[in-house]
Amino acid sequence: MRKIALLVLPAALAGCAATPKPVGYGRFAMASDAIDKKMVDDTVKKLVTLYPPAGTRFELQHGATDPFGTSLVATLREQGYALQEHMPASRSGADDKGKRRTLAYVFDQPSETDLYRVTLTIDAQSLSRVYLAKDGSVAPAGYWVRKE
């Protein structure tokens, strides 16, 4: 019995360690408007390939009052997405919830580096990409990573 417990305990602890705890949503990095816009354009370009604009409705899960969020909302609408901005009051009643996808974002800068990261949470999936800032501009530093 003791041997079984010794085998199960590390697996259980690894499962707990692999589940990150959310710290919040929004913008947690300072960047110029040009960097915000370039990252938003790249983010929306990826969303268009995964979720067709005419058939997708997003429901934003938090306020988007920061420059990245306002640019993201405007660009999503320009591309033809139906977007419901965050409403703190709960809604009731049945509607087309089956067609609506929840959307949240985190724009941050891991450790004081020249890297920025955008992470979108769509329903229960996350989509993330890292960018490298150099000479006042930004470029992707890797591929989009999608966790299902």
Going by helix content, strand content and strand pairing, the class is: alpha/beta
Low-confidence parts: 5-22
SSE order in H/E notation? HEHEHEEEEEE
Which radius of gyration do the C-alpha atoms yield? 18 Å
Secondary structure elements and pairings:
Blueprint: H1 2-17, E1 26-27, H2 33-50, E2 57-60, H3 67-78, E3 82-84, E4 100-108, E5 115-122, E6 125-134, E7 137-140, E8 145-147
Task: Describe the protein's architecture and organization.
The structure is a single chain. With 148 residues, this protein is of the alpha/beta class. 31% of the residues lie in helices and 29% in strands. The chain contains 3 helices and 8 strands; from the N terminus they run αβαβαββββββ. Strands 1, 2, 3, 4, 5, 6, 7 and 8 form an 8-stranded mixed sheet that branches. A hairpin with a 2-residue loop joins strand 5 (115-122) and strand 6. The protein is globular.
Which characteristics define this entry?
148 residues, alpha/beta, globular
Question: Summarize this, please?
Answer:
With 148 residues, the protein is an alpha/beta fold.
